[in-house]
Model the fold of this input.
Amino acid sequence: MNDHPGETMLPDHAEVVIVGGGVMGASAAFHLARRGVNVVLLERESFFGQGSTGRCAGGIRHQFSTDINIELSIKSIAMLQRFQADTGQAIDLKLNGYLFLLSTPEQMERFRQNVARQHVHGIFSEIWSTDQIAARVPLLNLDGIIGGTYYSGDGIADPSGVVNGYIAAARASGVVALNNVEVTGITVNGGAIAAVQTSQGTIRTPTLVNAAGPWSAQIAGLAGIDLPVRPERQQILVTTPMPEIPADFPFIIDFQQRLYFHREGAGLLTGMSMIGQPATFAQNVDPDWTDQHMDCAMARLPVLETAGRLTEWAGLYEVTPDAHPIIGPLAEVRGFYVVSGFSGHGFMHGPIAGLLVSEQIVDGAAHTLDISSLRTERFVQGQLIEEFNVV
Done:
């Protein structure tokens, strides 16, 4: 989508101002507009979805270890399956499955527990032997792998298509969505949101939605709020065409190494998560990490040795202490809502997250799903909900 922010002036008032034009902000804008709310969506980049959403791997999966993440996936992926009907935008949805490769008895036991939990929610993932894995993906080198899990209803979708579909549909419903507008300040009067200052002027509003992803702590700081979200750099590489990769190639994750692969056009997308790195907003590619990543990738998938590098980029996860998001109002300032901290799972949970925050704003509480466990108060109350399946 080629946006021309100069064509629309910054309004001086809105019922809701959303900061951040990735999948969270776009989904929230779309769902609020469907409820008749007057919304202004602000994105500081020249295009929507250029931040974390535009730099992600595009994976969507049900295979999580906590009830809330499983339910977020169930509802969000269902929304993606009807996305084109709802918005008119194709998103290249491919449900070729997710295959987790496991290396230790401890991992196998934990994933058996996870599969049992997924079954309770109607997600019939499977425990696979190495023979089953080899039959499904014969290109893999399974040295060190003792088993895995697979679910055929997982897959990939196009992040740009999802964001642009939501933005176009939101605009058609009256949302003012602006690019190249940076939030520079937040006015709080009497403990409540009163206005948002931007590089293009001030907007009076009683309600602010912070959907700024890795930068959401900075936005919260403008209102004097300490938000426990930190940026974590990740890198992804896409190869030149690889005719050896079959069309039904699943999204593969070597869990021990946090190494992953999936088809991307005629080539292969691969990454290896940089979990535990120092917080950073830097999005430059680290060539040393590329070398380490590709050594591991070629060892696990030897056919990569014949591929060329088409492109490579770095992006940011928005990480919370328990790898679960924050969705909802903040007690410190009335009218301040957060939808952030998805810890690498934001694209897949973006559709439902936007709906849930719209319900909180319009109805006073989310009702499509109980998300009381995702309140920010959990961090000070010691009620963390740890996600094991973090990649």
Observations:
- The first strand starts at residue 16 and ends at 19.
- Confidence is low (pLDDT under 50) at residues 1-6.
- The longest helix spans residues 346-363.
- The chain has ten helices and 19 strands.
